[in-house]
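Weekly puzzle thread! Below is a chain. First person to post its structure in token form gets bragging rights.
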Amino acid sequence: MQNAEVRELVQRSLERYAGDERVLDAFWQWASNPTPPSAGYALEENAGFIATNLMLRYGEPAVDLVMSVNEECRRLAGRASIQELQRTIVTVLNGPVGEQLRQGIVRRLSQPTVARRALTAWLVNRARWRRMPGREPVVAGEFDWSLGADLEGSGADCQSAVLRALYGPEVAQVDLAREAMAVGVVNRLFYRNVAGRMEAKLRPGPRLPVSALVY
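Winning reply:
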């Protein structure tokens, strides 16, 4: 199929769920699967990871939902390659169809807790110094979460000191990576390489304009 045909197919499919944040989230995660085609995509292995992310975020069992989304994606994969579907789903969900998904992430980031405020400040800071010239900075979970995720162990870090000054000493106990997973900035997904090595990877959620965040 031509790219335009795949885009129209995915657009029509996702528009049916435009008001259901959990379903859109599951589609996003399916499309964010980090396992390459050379290692077989590992779609079945990822199903459990997606359901766990959804449970952490929404507090509801999600196995049936993930199975339903997997089935629909496999049906779509009969019309285009999985790689092309993944790219197109991400593109569509970063547009108007994904508004409900992005609003949910912003809403969770805006919760007035020390952990969420610290996470938002950490994200905004990195978004600003990574911004492209002439473009509004966007928040995306494309950071190395092994760096700066342990605020307690990074006392010498300037930003950690600023966060402690803003939000109090309890911010040192915040696990930024877990908070980022809970709000949807990142997703913990299954990865396998062509040699068979397996691990969990944190993959970014939808991009959010910094102007939408309050911290």
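Puzzle host: Confirmed. Bonus trivia for everyone else. Residues 163 and 169 are 9 Å apart (CA to CA).
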